[in-house]
Structures are given as C-alpha cells and as structure tokens.
Amino acid sequence: MRYVKIKGDKIYEFLERLKNYGKLYAPVKISEKFYDRKEIDDVGEIAFDYQRTIMPAKKYFIPPCEEMFEIDMEENEYREKLEEVEPFVIFGMHACEIVALRILDGVYLNEYPDIYYERRRKAGIIIGLSCLPDEYCFCNLRRTDFVDIGFDLFLHELPDGYLARVGSPKGHKIVDENPDIFEEVRQEDIDAFRAFEEKRQEMFKFKGSFDNIRYILELTMQDKLWDEESEKCLGCGNCTMTCPTCRCYDVQDIPEIGGKKGKRIRFWDSCQFRSHGLVAGGHNFRETKRDRFLNRYICKNSYFYPLGTSYCVGCGNCTYFCPANIDFQENLMKIRGREVIHE
Amino acid sequence: MNNMNNMNNVYSLYKCRVLRVYDLTEEEKLFLFRFEDAEIAETWTFTPGQFVQLTITGLGEVPISICSSPMRRGFFELCIKKAGRVTDKIHELQPGDVVGVRGPYGNGFPVQEFEEKDLLLIACGIGMAPLRSVFMYAIDNRWKFGNITVINSAKTGKRLLFRKELEAMRDVAEAENIRIIQTVTRDPDWPGRVGRAQEHIKYANTSPENAYVCVCGPPQAYHDIFTKLIENGYNPRNIYVTLERRMKCGVGKCGHCIAGSSTFLKYICIDGPVFGYYDIISTPGLI
Fold first, then answer.
1. Model confidence over A32-83: pLDDT tens digits?
2. Is residue B151 a part of any domain in this protein?
3. B132 and B101, same structural domain?
4. pTM for this one?
5. Rg of chain A over all Cα atoms, to the nearest angstrom
6. Most buried of A33, A39, A107, B219 (most Cβ within 10 A)?
7. Beta strands in B125-223 (DSSP E)
8. Are residues B164 and B53 both part of a single domain?
9. Residues B176, B262 within the same domain
10. Is A45 on the interface with B (CB under 8 A)?
11. Could you tell me if B224 and B247 lie in one domain?
12. SS3 breakdown of chain B: % helix, strand, coil, rounded to 5?
C-alpha cells in the first residue's frame, strides 16, 4: 500500500482541492448534539471530531426516495429514469461506514446489479478518516474497526497532520495531481500512527471475539429479554434508517393528477413497520412487535459471506438514535453472556 | 416496457399481451400471456418454481409463480388469486390487454435432479399454482420421470385449483402411471375424496425410497405433511417446498422477503423460493 502524509496546515487546502474531483460532502455540526453530512461550501465548517452522522452515507448511493421509472399511462410504458450522476467526494467516512458500503455493494451489485446504485457508486470518491470510539461503538467486535479496501484515500490522524493510505487508482490520481499537498511519511509518523492505533484499541468498551453471537442468538430466540425489550420499542424505524447497512426499500407507482403520467418510486422501508412482512391475503410473517424487533437482531447479526463479517458493523447508530433508549449492544451482551468478554 | 429501455436495468419491464383468461374458481383466474417482442419470446425461459414480477401500469407490481411448462416458448401462464389492490385489477384483464413483466426470478425446483425418479406433488389451496408448472413440465418430458402422483387439496370442491383440468386427464393419466388425487376438507357436497392432503400420501403410486416430493401450501400445513411423508418412508432429503413472500424487487435487494435466522439468513427471491426440508427445519422463521 502507498502511504503519504498531509501536513496539518495543508488539510484545508487539501479539502479545497477535493472539490476539483466532485461535489464535496462532509460531516458538519448541525445542532448541539448532532452531526450530519452535507454539501460543503466552506471547508472550515467540516467537523473532524464527529462521532456519527444522523444519516449514514448510504443516502448518497440509495437516496431516501428516488424515481426509477416514468410511467406513460397512455402508451402503457415504463421509461427508465436515469439522471446524470455527477462525480462527488465523501470526506470523513469512518472504517465501519466503509465496510457498510461494501456490504451494500455485495447486495446491490450481486448477480442482478442495481444500475441506479452502480452509477452513483462509480461516481463517488471515498475519503476515510480515523476515529476514536465512544461507548456506543463496538466495531472491534465486528472486525470492522480497520478497513483494507473500499476507500480511495484513508486519513489517519497524527499529532501534526494525517497519514494517508492510498486505496485505489482514484486515490493515486489525487495524490499524483497534488504533489504540493502530500509529503513522504517519516519514522515519527509511523510511531504516531502506531500509538494512535494502540490508544484506540484500548478505548473500546468490550474486547474479544464475538462471532458466536449468531449461534447464541439463534438459540435464545425464545428468551424473555426479547419480550421485555420489544415492549419498549416504539416501532418508529429510526434504528433501520440510521443503520449504515439497512437497505430495505418499498416500491410504489404514483399516478399524476390527470392520469396520463406517473412515476414508479422507491423509498426506504423498515422491517420495524407492520407492513413489511405482509403478504397477499393478509398473512403477516412478522405479525407481532416482538417478531419485528427480533428480526432486526437476527438480520444484523447474520453472516455476510462475501466479507466474512456480520451485516452489523458495530457503529452504534441504532442505539444512539433510539428514542426509547433501547441498547442494541447491551442486549447482545446480555444474550451473549458478558462475563466471557474481557472488559 | 419497450426497446428504448435499458435491458441492463434489472427492473425494466417486458411487454406481455394477455391471450386468454380462464376462470378457475371464484377467487382465482388463469391468464395466458405472450411476449410482444419476438426476440424475447424466443429466448425467454424459466425453471418450474420460478416467479415473475407482473406490473399493471400505474398501479404496481406483484410477484406471481409461473404455473405453466417452460416447454412452450414465448408463452407462459399465471394463476392469480384476487387478494389485493393489484390482483383485483389483474382480474379485470381481458384478452388483448398489455401488462409489464420482468423475471423469471428465484431458484426454481431442481427438476434435473428429479429425472429418473418418481415424483410426488402435494398442493394445498393456491399451492397448486407453482406445482402445476412442475407437473406440466413432467408431462411434457414424461419419459424422463418415473411414476407421478399429484395430490391437490382445498377446503371445498369449488376451491380446488385446476380441478377440471386434472379431472379431465385422470383416465389418460392412469394409463401413463400418473395418479391424480383431489381431496377436500370441508365440503359435504363433494362426491370425491375427503381429508387433508397428508392423509392421502399413502395412496400415491410413487415409491417412497425412489421419489422426490414437492410441497406447496400455507405455512401452517407443512409440519403435518412432513411428518406424514417421513412416516410413509419418504427421504427427507428429497422433500422440497416453495415459499411465498411479498417480493418488491425479486433480485435480492428490497429486503421484504428476507427470512431465516442469524445463521441462515436468506432472500427468498434469490436463494429460494424453493427450499429443502433440512433448510426448513434448521431455520426458524422460514415457514
């Protein structure tokens, strides 16, 4: 892998240059407590120390709502609606979110590639950024705390700048075209990188191996914990909307007033909604709130074969944004048996 | 729905024309479709057990199992139950009307594996629709299969799907070593066999140790059928079922058909809808 360094005083110039490669999106503070990713005009606004954004980066690849087809009711036709996708740069993605994108790739670019997703994915440049965990983070247990691929550049914080890993041809291009921004990595940078990684590992709330959770979860589906916890759930779907790997969508045909035209749209859906498991004739495969609640735990903890990780990347968003204070990580720990994890 | 569309887009539709509409029961109709585009008509094929996504313009899309044999190129049949907003509208279709179709999707039954073996098909209610595709395929390839039995069950005689079709072929069928058993559970006026499908397994002409079994019915029917099959000596490894969900995409994305447990999470639309007996019993939530 190619490593370069960005000196601290050049970081804003670097961000400014990123705009040459496409629309720049980065996290900004939007209220006392929350951050969200937005299109950046003034790079001074960018928050480097953000923990999580309200909406995960999936919104740039799978918009909350998009038109797939334009319907011509008179001609009985569905005309593909593919809008121009302009290049864009997402700055500041954490390791877990980059893995999450690769999970979405596995689903959306399987043997039936989704052209809407694919076009956006090709247009996007991913600049990763190192982070330190808070009490909601458990990416280390998910083995998503460090990424090898899936980014163009990945910036690791150093006391006097950033150590950047170059992860793709697009990343090489950015480095090559901006020689005044980058410099060589020196021994003290490597030492600082190592120290940062060590400190980071120590900060995780839980340590150890977590893969057996899927089996234990499967064996404890009758546990009363699920009754108690699902009782608290409001069924709002916040957990799935803020989840970087939740990808369920619903499709609807909306005719325009006048009835000559219409559109086929798709929009984010949630397994926490009652309508999600309904089939024709009224049977519901997830009839009760408990069924729906447990479904998310099952789905998130199941194995995503292509990456060898679970669908959950351990970002903590679902817990952080839950209005009913349901703690996903804590519930898994209870089911898993906390005592075997070295705290 | 036309050639202007990008066929690299998995969600693009093919235009299909309704050729015939048959009333099957009060709730179910059978539709015969033909592809408008000659090239697609010639190349489009499927495996029994697969399904298509059918669009009524401006109203929406529904997943429907194909119920005809893939041996008839360019044509396919769908048996559709009136069960909701879109299917209500489908029931109003007349010959000549045009709909949008994409697919086929799903794994289908492993019919190649069934060759040389006996075949037992067990259907409850609307379950006859996907199994008819297997049955028709087996008839079209009669010499490839051993004895065949179809057990078709419903609440009442009037609700037996393809009742007349199966009745009409019964005599010829016996000569061909094909046994047709139609049974109802709650119909005092029904002159034929009564009882649930599983109670008639013992009358099948298939030899348990040499047969493949396909089952389709409502989720609550499966366990009793499995028990009876195993009691009668059928090999669990040779039992297949086909499942139903409300697929929105059909291509493993939208998540509506995700089912299973944390060690076996499946998209029914691409990993199924056909699953083996052992998948079912090791996966809570599949049925």
1. 989 999 999 999 999 999 999 999 999 999 999 999 999 999 888 999 999 8
2. yes
3. no
4. 0.91
5. 22
6. A107
7. 148-154, 178-184, 193-194, 211-216
8. no
9. no
10. no
11. no
12. 30, 30, 40
B232 shares a domain with B143? yes
Provide the shortest C-alpha distance from residue A88 to chain B (in Å): 23
Give the ipTM of the model, two decimals please. 0.87
Residue B1's pLDDT is 44
Of B55, B262, B281, which to mutate for an interface test with A (greatest number of A Cβ within 10 Å)? B262
Between positions 107 and 166 of A, the ones with CB within 8 A of B are 107-108, 110-115
B200 and B248 part of one domain: no
Inform me whether the C-beta atom of residue B93 falls under 8 Å from chain A C-beta atoms.
no
**What DSSP character marks residue B19?**
E
Distance CA A164, CA B82 (A): 60
Strands in chain A per DSSP E:
2-7, 23-29, 35-39, 65-72, 77-80, 88-93, 124-129, 153-158, 161-166, 182-183, 249-255, 261-268, 303-304, 309-310
- What gap in Å lies between CA B227 and CA B104, rounded to an integer? 32
Upstream peptide bond of A56 is cis (omega within 30 degrees of 0): no
- Residues in chain B with pLDDT values less than 50: 1-4
Residue A304 has pLDDT above 80, yes or no: yes
The pLDDT score that the predictor gives to residue B241 is 95
| d(C-alpha A128, C-alpha A97), whole Å | 9
Position B131 in a domain: yes
Specify whether the CB–CB gap between A269 and A122 falls below 8 A: no
